[in-house]
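Homework help board

Subject: predicted structure for assignment chain

Our instructor gave us this sequence and asked us to write out the predicted structure in token form, then describe one feature. I got the tokens but I'm not sure how to describe them. Can anyone check?
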Amino acid sequence: MKNNNRARMPGYLAGLEPLSRRGFLRTSVLAGAALSSGCSSLFGRREAPETLQYHSLTPDEVEVITRLTEVMLPAESYGLPSSTTVVPTVENIDMMAQRLPKQTRDLMGLGIWVFNNRPMVSFKFSKFTSLSDEKALAYVDAMQEGTFFERGLMTTLKALVALNYWRDERTWPGLEYHGPVTEMWGVRRLGNAPLPRA
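My token output:
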């Protein structure tokens, strides 16, 4: 029979015994977000002026998302509609952000701020928006292979950009997608009709 008696934890670690691995990860992510939030408040997020064409995104957020879109989706080089000049990817993200609950919208802004300022540690104090195409792509790849927090942030931002590009009908021919089959085949919509019973 195994002995389950463990040595007592030192006084400075007291109270951490019941913390599971999942609890520790959750606490770490929340602490990281709180720290980043404090930095964001310290350096300040500029609010969008009322005359700007974007209704939810701040000028800083527009700059970051535009740069990420250019790096992630160099669509023109593949014969697809441009992700910045033809398909309004950033405007689509702005419309999506308008419909988000306040807490989610604030977290999105915080994530964008962290993503833009994080390269300052390893890229000679340059923000993401200041990196060359090659270095910006290397940064995106490094984030995708990074820590739990970095992977989660990068996956979220990639999904945000990709979904708001490919939802535009002008991109569908590149995927050989011809629209909803219900419209193509003239399927009559039944609304919320009950399912048929056997």
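Reply (TA_rk): Your tokens look well-formed. For the description, you could write something like this. Residues 21-43 form the longest helix (23 residues). That's the kind of observation they're looking for.
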